[in-house]
Amino acid sequence: MHKISESHRIGDGLISGALSVVLGVCSLLAVLCYLFPSYLTTTELRAAYDAVFLQSVLKYGMYASLLLGVVTFLINKRKRLGSIGIMLTLLAYVSGGWMVPVGPVEPYEYALGLDWMILAFLASAVLFIFLERIFPHRPEQVILRPDWGVDFSYFVFNHLLISILLLITNRFSEGLFGWAVHDDFQSWVQSVPVWLQVVALIFASDFVLYWNHRAFHEFPRLWKFHAVHHSTEHLDWMSGSRSHLVYMVAERCLVMVPLYLLGASKEALDIYVAIAAFQAVYIHSNMNVSFFGLNNLIVDARFHHWHHSSEAEAIDKNYCAHTPLYDWMFGTYYYPKVKWPERYGTVEPLPKGFWRQFWYPFVKE
Questions:
Q1: In whole angstroms, what is the distance from residue 96 CA to residue 340 CA?
Q2: Cα–Cα distance measured from residue 216 to residue 229, given in angstroms and rounded to the nearest whole number
Q3: Among residues 84, 133, 147, 344, which is most buried (max CB within 10 A)?
């Protein structure tokens, strides 16, 4: 088993320095969102949060970044990290800090989803780093494990494209499948209990996700795009972000079709999106916990870890994202009792680094 024996020791300044830099970066980006909301924030997400309240969160985040930066600097072992965190926070302050006026925002169709990226990162980091420390699969694996920076680059890149991806997927569904929309059927769907609508969304979307996922494994030309996702050798909450743009666009466009045709209520869609977002991070996480013993009904981390294994018996298995049903139905189910995989990654190593992996599928062998 490939182990990571490195540890973050209290007193060496790495933890406080890294936190200072992360909070400093988030603070500066948040200030930019307040300064240029039409171009950097998404219309749909702005309606879901209180911008004035988040300014208070920003203020205390900047205080924390400064304090952690000073502590790191005084420790005298990670002065560079401490200095970077302090400078980023001061730059955020002189740019307006938490005092930028909040007012009406003129929406811009092609805005970057910078607000979504910041909130998604902070929420995921706080929740899953805590859970991975409490219920670890590999206790020796540290937070900043090898290639963490590469996966973070994917996280930033893919989240910044959220507005454009939503535009593409909506137009794809409406343009190609608008003729199949049936108002009476959608009215009936919305008339059933919300929980039943959510169940229907889960099974319908997972059917599409299964076959899209399987196609990207079994067709060599498509596999090169999806191999990028499998190239990570250390699974945790951040590793699921490693996904090539081509695969991500194909997956989002196709999964939107059943959601669009079913026409479920907004409440049901919101619940499904929340479940899907949580599960997408959880199944890649370094967590040894299942859904209360319901591992035969719900895809859990161990099930999906086998999908990422480079061991022969696990290759091209476990394609489902929500429930193992379709893997069981179509002969791709693999879930040995108790045992976890020992190796992750692709059989043939891929190039290292974000841009080298981005161009990898386009290069002829």
A1: 49
A2: 11
A3: 344
